[in-house]
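Fold it.
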Amino acid sequence: MTNIGVFDSGLGGLTVLKELASKKNANYFYLGDSKRAPYGSRSKDEILKLTDEIVEYLEKYDIDQYIIACNTISTIATEYLENKYKKKFYPITRAGVENALQYEGDFCLLATKATVDSHIYKEEIEKNSSSKVFEIPATKLVTLIEDGKLSGDELDQALSQYLEIANQNQIPNIILGCTHYPIIKNAIIKNLNYKANIINPAHNVSKKVNFDEDNKSSINIFMTQVNEKNKQIVDHILDCDYNLELKEI
């Protein structure tokens, strides 16, 4: 049996889990730290500490390989985790950059402050293409999504602000640089005044992550906070059977 660990600061990584589980069979163990989300505005030391606690918990399930389904954690903790646990950790940012390089033209990166501050998308894309990357720290979006505000005036006001540069410059490509953002893809499209390519890094993960597949999948979801709002979001994202448990870490 192949055990795959997938983790995120909250619900967003479920968009990555959905892509993986729909294409590759394994025993999936997902941990979302909604209780302490968002991570994007935290310090590096805080992010490393919280991430370490997540992986320590998942290790009890004899995980063969991990997918870091969080851009913030990917930019800060990948090397640290690989060195400490001596296992393979696949960062979502790698899939995002590789996916973006398939497109021509400039990019608008919507991401958390930590991901923007790392400049990982900007540096890798501009190094490997003639495109320019406009970095937008969309600091309010994760909190709005975790609170179940997937549409409405408050979300539209935030998106109108974050997409201002894209709308002014008709930037052809929008990178969803946080795995929470595909959950509000329709709202993002609504708040653009032109048609853009919406790049979701999760779409590329199943092509890049290799492991021995099982005959069927099982999906086990652990959340550090469970309420009616995030239960509804889980059902909104996943269209398959799963087990959901509240876990303190």
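The chain has twelve helices and ten strands.
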